[in-house]
C-alpha cells in the first residue's frame, strides 16, 4: 500500500527521482552528451521518441533504426526543428527479421562511427498470432530476439569505443513489470505458441518477451565482465503509459479502460525518465545487471532472477539467430533509402 501511495504522489526514491520525474529532469546531471553516439530502437513514437528528443537536447548524436523510414524522417525533422544542428541519422531496420538486423549493423559499421549507448526500446504487442520470416512468434521475435542479435553484433564496436575513448558504454533494455505475469518454461511455451499447439494469448506472449529482456540483461552482464569490456547492461520498466502499442485496439472499451486508470498512467515524458536516467546519469557508472523502475533500482520477478533460465535462454537464442545459409553479405544490396 505504501509503495502505491509513493507512486501516486511521485515520492522520490534513493536516486532523488520518482514516478513523476521526467527525462529532462533526470538528465540535468549529464547536460552535455556531445561525446555520445546512441542507437535507439523504436524512436519514431511514444517513449522512444521522447528519449531521442531528450538525448538530442543534451547534444548526443542519434542513430534511429526504423521499419518505417517515413516515420523516422519525421522524427528527425521534429528534433532538428527543436534543436538546430542536432546530428540524427536514420537507417532501416525491421527487428522481426534477423536478416534486416544484420543489414542494419553492416550499414552502421560502414559509417565508422563510435557507439557509446544502445537503447533497446522498440516493442510490439501482437493481438493476433503471427510468425516472423525466421519462424519465430512475432512478439518474441520483435521485442526480444531481434534485440538480442542487434546487441550481440554491436558489442565489439561498443567495447572498442569504450576502450578508445575512456567513456563507459551502456546498454539499456526496456522491459516491463508485465514480465512478472509469465511463469513456467519459457522455451517450451514459445515453441508451443509458435507452432500453434496452444491457444494464442497476446498478453502472455508480450509478458514472455519482456521476461526475455530481463534474462538477456542478466546473462549479458556476466558475459561483458568475462570479456573485460567497459560496457554495462541494465533493464528498465518505464511505467504504464498509453502509447501506439495499443493502436490496433483503439475504441470505446480501450478509451474507457485508460480513462479509469488515468491516475495510474504516466505522461510520455515521465515514462521516458527511467530510460534516460539509466542511460546517462553519472551515479550509475559501473552499475550493471540491475532492474530499474521509477528511476530507482527494483526487484524483477523470481523467475527473471534465475541465472539458470537466463543462460538457457541465451543458448537457445544463439541457436535461433545463427546464420542458416552461410554468412550474411558484408553490405546489403538494397538501397538504404528504401523502406524495409
UniProtKB/TrEMBL annotation:
Q: Name one Pfam family in it.
A: adh_short
**Family per record:** Belongs to the short-chain dehydrogenases/reductases (SDR) family.
Q: Name one GO molecular function term.
A: oxidoreductase activity
Q: Name the segments for region: Disordered.
A: 301-340
Taxonomy, superkingdom = Eukaryota
Q: Which UniProt keywords apply?
A: Oxidoreductase
Mind telling me what this protein is named? Short-chain dehydrogenase TIC 32, chloroplastic
Species whose genome carries this gene = Musa acuminata subsp. malaccensis
What InterPro entries has UniProt attached to this entry?
A: NAD(P)-bd_dom_sf, SDR_fam
